[in-house]
Amino acid sequence: MAQIRVNDLSFTYEGSSDPVLSHVTFQIDTNWKLGLIGRNGKGKTTLLQLMMGTYDYQGSIYSPVAFDYFPYSVSDNDGSRTASELMEQWKPSVQLWQVLIQLDQIHMDAECLFRPFSTLSFGERTKVMLAVLFAGENEFLLIDEPTNHLDEKARQVVKDYLSSKKGFILVSHDRDLLDAVCDHILAFNKSTIEVQSGNFTSWWANKERSDTFAQSENEKHLKEISKLKTAADRSSQWAAKNESTKIGFDPIKEQRGMGTRPYIGSKTKKMQSRVKAVEKRINREIEGKKDLLQDIERVDDLKIPQLSFYKDLMINVYDLSLRYQDAEKPLFEGLRFQVTKGRRVLLKGPNGCGKSSILKAILQKSDLPDKSERARLPGNLIVEGTLQVTSGLIISYASQDTSFLKGTVQDFCLERQLDLSLFLSVLRILDFSREQFVKDLSDLSEGQKKKILLAASLITPAHLYVWDEPLNYIDVFSRMQIEKLILTYQPTMLLVEHDVRFAQTVATQIVEL
Predict the structure, then answer these.
(1) Above pLDDT 70, what percent of the chain?
(2) Separation of CA 401 from chain center
(3) Is the pLDDT of residue 296 over 80?
(4) Over the stretch 357-412, which tens digit does the pLDDT of each residue have?
(5) Residue 32, exposed/middle/buried by CB under 10 A (0-12, 13-18, 19+)?
(6) In what order do the strands lie in the sheet with 58-62?
(7) Residue 57: count of CB within 10 angstroms of its CB
(8) Do 417 and 330 meet the contact criterion of CB atoms below 8 Å apart?
(9) Cis omega (within 30 of 0) for bond into 71
(10) What backbone phi and psi angles, to 5 degrees, belong to 415?
(11) Which residue of 90, 303, 383, 450 is surrounded by the most CB atoms within 10 Å?
């Protein structure tokens, strides 16, 4: 067992005045299974890139072992090449037999190594890359969100595989994965960084206790300051009142001794000294408690402006079959379900089974407030069977695709006819900093892009909210915010999402494909 030490690490992207990492210091062991968590934009992926030597930085990173990073880079031209060819550039030192051993452990057929990479599913690509990643020796592995876009079955395979390994950092927002895999947590808090033994659930329990204690101490602290300020104000008023009694003193007209004026002056001076002493105590109290609440996640509640629909039945699906024009066979056949008022229906099934296509078929038959979103719907989807969308139904849609986002926040709101101030307020609740409001949307992290789409959906009044994998790249804290929102307002929803905890918490009905 050896240690990796990060000391006083700071980094700012070129052209930006806002540092991503500032004076970061921590140390970890090379045999840990470390979960790295934090809000979107806190620098988790950037830290991994710095450890890989991608950028120049200030401070130091010491490691007795080499690093390797998931996911490996795959260009557009690499799609026609096989994984067995690509692994030579991903990890030149690894042998084929080593990868085959890992493929067996991750329950993957070796023939996938010899197919064009573009023909592999998201799950197959993830498994191949992980097999290559863990095929090396004497390395500490940096794994960046391996379960995004994976269905539940593929997530379970990845979870079981990583549970059997050690010596890695795992960046993930999947609470189920973090609990099953990790034995330590590296948390990027709001102002500090901490390392704790345990998984996500134990870390979160500790954080809630710590936050509760800090808030309790802060209340005591505020009461003490209030008392001290009251005492200071009272002494200050006494001093001013006493000082005023010596002004205009005439010993001939007033029956006072000649020592009265000096006596009043001395007493006033003592009172003023007492005021200054109390003010010093107040400043010490403030200084001593200034960092008390620095890491508390102040999670403001979100709201959703759901419209009331005149009918209970919104969507009726009966013996539905979907097929794309150039496909030989349908995605599925004989599907039946309904979406009724107040229900939250979650579509579940493996990647490629047609979940997103169902949403798109429904959107084509509905009234979408966002016309730009309608323009991106496929025109080659053939619907057979019954797909009824009740007349007058208004749908707010959040796509899983973020690749079209570009331009400013103002441009985005103008195109979608959104209230800019309301949109920015929701983004602030989702932990956007004001510096991010002036960036081009294409320069935001994937998690921040997803928040853009979710915020747009949240402020769009609708009868039905249709979200396609809304939690991909979204941080843990925002996931819990969204769960609380749904449970509080109970909007009618049709969802595609593979996050196990989220599905268990919010879904009232699950439709298996």
Answers:
(1) 83
(2) 17
(3) no
(4) 999 999 988 876 566 666 677 778 889 999 999 999 999 999 988 989 999 999 99
(5) buried
(6) 21-29, 3-11, 58-62
(7) 20
(8) no
(9) yes
(10) -65, -40
(11) 450
Q: In angstroms, how far apart are the furthest CA atoms of the chain?
A: 117
Lowest mean pLDDT among 71-75, 147-151, 306-310, 368-372: 368-372
**C-alpha 498 chain-centroid distance:** 16
* Positive or negative: CA dihedral 363, 367, 373, 378: positive
Angle at the Cα of 275 from the Cα atoms of 271 and 281, rounded to 5 degrees: 140
In a 13 Å sphere around the CA of 204, the CA atoms on its Cβ side amount to 13
Q: Report d(CA 271, CA 242) in Å as an integer.
A: 9
Q: Which of 223, 174, 275 is nearest to 499 (CA)?
A: 174
CB-CB contact of 367 with 395 (8 Å)? yes
8 Å CB contact between 435 and 18: yes
User: How many alpha carbons lie under 13 Å from residue 415 in its C-beta half-sphere?
Assistant: 15
Among 26, 350, 76, residue whose Cα is nearest residue 188: 26
**What is the arithmetic mean of pLDDT over 461-477?**
92
- Strands 21-29 and 344-348, by their bridges, are unpaired
Query: Strands 3-11, 58-62: parallel, antiparallel or unpaired by DSSP?
Result: antiparallel
pTM above 0.90, yes or no: no
**C-alpha pair distances (Å), 242 with each of 251, 253, 276, 279, 297:** 17, 19, 17, 20, 48
How far is the C-alpha of 248 from the C-alpha of 269, rounded, in Å? 18
Phi and psi of 330, rounded to 5°?
Answer: -70, 160
**66 phi and psi angles, rounded to 5 deg:** -80, 160
Radius of gyration of the chain, Cα coordinates, nearest whole angstrom: 30
- Supply the pLDDT for residue 458: 92
Determine the 3-state secondary structure of 161 from DSSP: helix
Give the span between the Cα atoms of 464 and 392, in whole angstroms: 11
Residue 256 has pLDDT above 60, yes or no: no
| Cβ–Cβ < 8 Å for 426, 478 | no
Phi, psi of 376 (to 5 degrees): -90, 0
